[in-house]
Specification:
heterodimer; A: 287 residues; mainly alpha; two-stranded antiparallel ribbon; 2 strands; B: alpha/beta; 6-stranded mixed β-sheet; 10 strands; 34% helix; globular
């Protein structure tokens, strides 16, 4: 029975990793940009939500709602003012710029918020759980997982059933021809990064409510997100969720064997998938 | 309606166009013929903003558009059927058509329904991925996609390239109906016979320059021959 419990906890943890990864996947899918500052942007958003809670006295949910337009605007500006200038045939400049942004964000956050670890207070919800008979699951992990599913359904709806989604996919296929269709690729990229930052805010909310965070933990979130995206296969958000679940389950089983193995087990699972399926579980046809 | 003035284009150190002047009147059908490498496709890429220019090198309704982006030029009513069709592989046939019309919404004769009436086979294949179609059907999607914006001017870059003669005949059969809709057409072609049969006027290009301008109905074979190959027939 304990193994079933571990499996369920691992699957639910996968929801959190899918939230970390979805924004990264979206940006990479549309503009082939690997945003090395993704993890740090999650931490930035977590501090933003925390400020809403501590300074304005809002509930975490309302604080996140307030943070969403701020983060969208930040993503839009980041893309329009910085990243659009370095996107091109050479993949190195965007990597360097986002790496620099990552360092700058970590140091900026350290300067403003200090190295103390913080947490977004949620009150009674934090320890609440639901007895499902065979297993007992925490309300918070359950909500995280449900949010990941809702977010993926929402993003897929946007991608496959709206004019904006068509423009995203067309630009991803062929930016020059998309331009001939009246689509401004740079504008599309800015909107995409804005939307990715909305997802980042959701990820930040759950990260901050479930665990302590400090300015230095962004890069580790980036690694989990990266692994989830790569396992999933670079084109499918459901694949990204599957990737998150694989890492989550590997981590909870690793931790059950020996607490020191939790992180390592996740990385080993990633390497194992890469050995068996180098292009991920759900690869795109055109890559 | 569209004019180029001393249009030049470069690929790095290599100059591909040396001062090209062409004009297209509203509703007119103009053919641009020439051998491989004559600069025809470069001319199309310059007009549509894929290659940047001096503003005054391209005029639309008298206004300089040479430095505008592809998207801005398209929104002015200049739509392109690019060489090699360039359908979006992630999009279905219908989505490919819709994406052509979503940035410029103006009243006009073309809509999903009228494009499907023009090329009925596309209605049957509308849920297929664009790239799952045959070359001829893909060309129909590319033409339909450009029509969806109800353009004033339709630029067609090598629409017969790589297609079987019977397919080319079907595609050319659609051109008169497109003209009835009011759009001017520029046909870039290597197939001289096909181009002359539908065009009002013809420009012949060689090595980045216009070597002949003539009314399609009056031009003599010898003139084309010398303009096309640079030697007397």
């Amino acid at each position: 029975m304990i193994w079933l419990d571990i499996l369920v906890q691992g699957i639910l943890l996968g929801g959190l990793y899918a939230l970390f990864a979805a924004g990264l996947s979206l940006v990479f899918g549309i503009m082939r940009l690997v945003n090395l500052a993704h993890g740090d942007l999650i931490i930035l958003a977590a501090y933003l939500v925390l400020m809403g809670v501590t300074l304005l006295g809002l509930s975490p949910w309302i604080a996140a709602l307030v943070a969403v337009p701020v983060m969208f605007a930040l993503g839009w500006l980041l893309q329009a003012a910085v990243l659009n200038r370095v996107l091109g045939k050479d993949i190195l400049p965007p990597l360097l710029v986002t790496f620099g942004l990552s360092v700058a964000l970590q140091n900026g956050l350290l300067e403003v918020f200090s190295a103390d670890s913080r947490r977004i207070p949620v009150g009674a919800l934090e320890g609440a759980s639901l007895d499902l008979g065979l297993v007992t699951v925490g309300i918070m992990p359950l909500m995280t997982f449900a949010s990941a599913i809702v977010m993926i359904i929402g993003l897929n709806g946007l991608f496959y059933h709206t004019a904006l989604g068509r423009a995203f996919r067309a630009t991803s296929d062929d930016a020059v021809t998309a331009g001939l269709m009246g689509i401004e690729p740079k504008r599309i990229f800015a909107i995409a990064t804005g939307i990715a930052m909305v997802v980042v805010t959701l990820a930040a909310l759950y990260l901050g409510m479930r665990a302590n965070f400090d300015p230095s933990i962004g890069p580790a979130r980036l690694i989990y997100a990266f692994e989830a995206v790569i396992i999933g296969g670079l084109g499918s958000l459901w694949g990204t969720l599957a990737g998150g679940i694989i890492i989550g389950v590997a981590q909870t089983f690793g931790a059950a064997l020996n607490p020191e193995w939790q992180i390592l087990a996740g990385h080993i699972a990633f390497l194992a998938v890469m050995l068996l399926k180098p292009r991920g579980l759900f690869p795109r046809a055109v890559d | 309606m569209l004019e180029t003035h001393g249009l030049t284009a470069n690929y790095g150190q290599f100059r591909a166009l040396f001062g090209v002047d062409i004009t297209v009147a509203a509703g007119e059908c103009v053919a641009i013929i020439g051998a491989n490498g004559a600069g025809k496709s470069t001319l199309m890429r310059s007009i549509t903003g894929v290659l940047g220019n001096e503003p005054g090198m391209v005029l639309h309704r008298g206004e300089p558009i040479g430095a505008l982006s592809s998207a801005e030029i398209m929104k002015r009513g200049i739509a392109m059927v690019p060489e090699g069709r360039r359908l979006f592989p992630s999009l279905t046939v219908e989505e490919n058509l819709l994406v052509g019309g979503q940035a410029r919404k103006v009243p006009g004769p073309w809509s999903l329904d009228t494009v499907y009436d023009l090329f009925p086979i596309l209605r049957e294949r509308r849920k297929s991925p664009g790239t799952a179609l045959s070359g001829g059907q893909q060309q129909m999607v590319a033409i339909g996609r450009a029509l969806m914006s109800n353009p004033e001017l339709l630029l067609c870059d090598e629409i017969s390239l790589g297609l079987a003669p019977v397919i080319i005949r079907d595609i050319y059969a659609a051109l008169p109906r497109i003209r009835e809709g009011g759009a001017a057409i520029v046909l870039v072609e290597q197939d001289i016979g096909k181009a002359l049969a539908v065009a009002d006027r013809v420009y012949c290009m060689m090595e980045g320059r216009v070597t002949l301008v003539a009314k399609a109905a009056e031009v003599a074979r010898e003139q084309i021959h010398s303009a096309y190959f640079g030697v007397a027939a």
